[in-house]
Structure formats: structure tokens, C-alpha cells
Amino acid sequence: QVHLTESGGGSVQAGGSLTLSCAASGYTFSNRCAAWFRQAPGKEREGVAAIDIFDGSPHYVDSVRGRFTISMDNAKNTLSLRMSSLTPEDTALYSCASDGPCAGSWDDYNYWGQGTPVTVSS
């Protein structure tokens, strides 16, 4: 059974940094893309970053490009998201997803985690 488990969320002041991790069990990141999504209170879920499993190429939404870095540790079978220069607008529940198209929506992916909350205070 596949499980994706996120960790690393928390509370941070604006301008700070956090690194999120997504550990997989019962599954190896090996197909298509893996991604991070976020959903802020009262807003729709949006994809923020994705990584192509085959060539490692990253993809970012404009609002996080230059501040967030997505990476894959194949040895640890873990997906990460390094977030820096955080703003209150980054406050959301961050969730990982795997085995889907890099430009796809949440429903296009086959596996999902439950999410880890990130709160950025001003």
C-alpha cells in the first residue's frame, strides 16, 4: 500500500525558510512527475512545484519561482521542497503528490499525501 507522508511544516516569520519532506512507503518515485500542492484557507488547491522524475527538471508556479526549490533524493526515496523568503501569502496546507503530469492538477496524480501546514506570520 502506498503512503506519502509529509513533514517539516510549521510556523515561521515572514522572510524565513522551511524545508518540507515527502517520504514514500510502499512506492518508489519512478514515474512521470512528483509535485507539491498547497491550499490556503478559503482558496482552491494550487500546484506550486513539480519535478520530472526522469530528467530532474523542475517546474514552478510564478509566485514561488526563485524562492522555492523542489528536489528528489532517490537514495532516501524522498521528495523535498525548500522554501525561502516566505510571506504570509504562502500560508497553506502543503501536500505532495506523485505519478502524474508535471503540469497536471491534483486529480491527475495517482498518489497523494495528507499534507503539512505552513503558517507565515508578518
Question: What do you see in this structure?
Answer:
The chain has no helices and eleven strands. The protein has 122 residues and is an all-beta fold. Strands 2, 4, 5, 6, 9, 10 and 11 form a seven-stranded mixed β-sheet that branches. A four-stranded antiparallel β-sheet has the order 1-3-8-7, with no helix packed on it. The radius of gyration is 13 Å and the shape is globular. The mean pLDDT is 95.
Q: Please give the alpha-carbon distance between the first and last residues.
A: 40 Å
Q: Which residues form runs of ≥5 with pLDDT under 50?
A: none
Helix content, binned percent: under 10%
Strand content: over 45%
Mean pLDDT: 95
Largest sheet properties: 7 strands, mixed
What's the Cα radius of gyration? 13 Å
Oligomer: single chain
Structural class: mainly beta
State the order of secondary-structure elements, H for helix, E for strand. EEEEEEEEEEE
Please give the number of β-strands: 11
Shape: globular
Give the helix tally: 0
